[in-house]
Every structure is written in structure tokens, then in C-alpha cells.
What we know:
Layout: H1 8-49, H2 57-61, E1 62-69, E2 72-79, H3 86-91, E3 93-94, E4 98-100, E5 108-112, E6 115-119, E7 122-124, E8 128-129, H4 134-159
Antiparallel strand pairs: 1-2, 3-8, 4-7, 5-6
Helix pairs in contact: 1-4
Amino acid sequence: MFATLEGVETLDLQLASLPADVLSRLEEKARQLAATLADKVREEKLSGGVLQLRTGALKASISSDVSIDGNEVNATVGSFGDIKYAAIQEYGGRTSAHEILPDKAQALAFVIGGVQRFARRVEHPGSTIPASGYLQSSLDEARDEIVAELSSAAQEAWEDR
């Protein structure tokens, strides 16, 4: 007695394409979530929530990137560009002593004790910058939603088979 199972080839094809389908669905969802997280950093954290907006350069440098490496989807949200102070604002640190010179005038102008002063140069003693964690705090706040959304995307890819 023999039994014949019909549809085995179709099932094999569906199972073989499953990793690609899941990966594609996860990539799409990761792009959405990373873009949302970058928006949160720019609009909440760098617009007064954690750091006050001054020039807008750090805020403008925040973006997201998603890539696939084999069977991995990698999402990055961060400061892309030449913003020298981005890392020290995130992680904190100490700047070294340095000289401040005017770049657009012949002298520096500043107010001390209500009196305007001028100087050709100033010796800055260095600063201790506390960590603000504008990126890490945003990720921490969104972590549960990100995990749930990615899990849901993988589940939907499985169920759509």
C-alpha cells in the first residue's frame, strides 16, 4: 500500500521562500520604525526635550539607515555628518583646555557681570559635559513598541504564506 501526498512541491517552495519573505517584511518595518525614531529624536529630544536647539546642526544631522547583511536586518539611527559635538552630547565627556579666537571680527565680545568686555583671545579651561543620552533615551522609550512591531511583522509574513 502506498500513500501519495499532493502539494509537497508547493509546500517546499513556500517554505524555501519564507526566510526571504520574513526578511523583506522586517526590512520594511525596520525602515518605518527607524524613521519614526529619528523623527522623535529630532522633534522631541533635540528641540528642547533633552537639549536646547541652538544652530539646528545636530538636529539636522539625525537620520536613519537600514541595511541587510545576510539574514540580518540592521537599523541605525544617529548623527550622520561632521557634527563634532554629537558624541560628547550623547555620552558626556571632558573637553581639553583651548584657546578661543575670533573668526569673523578682530575681537571677541561677551558680557561678564552686566559689563560688555572685549578680548583678542580667551584661554578656555575646558569643560565637563554631562551625558544627555538623546539617542539612547529615545531608543529606551520606544523599545517595547519596536519589539512588538517587528514581532508582528514577522508573524504576518508567516501567516501570509
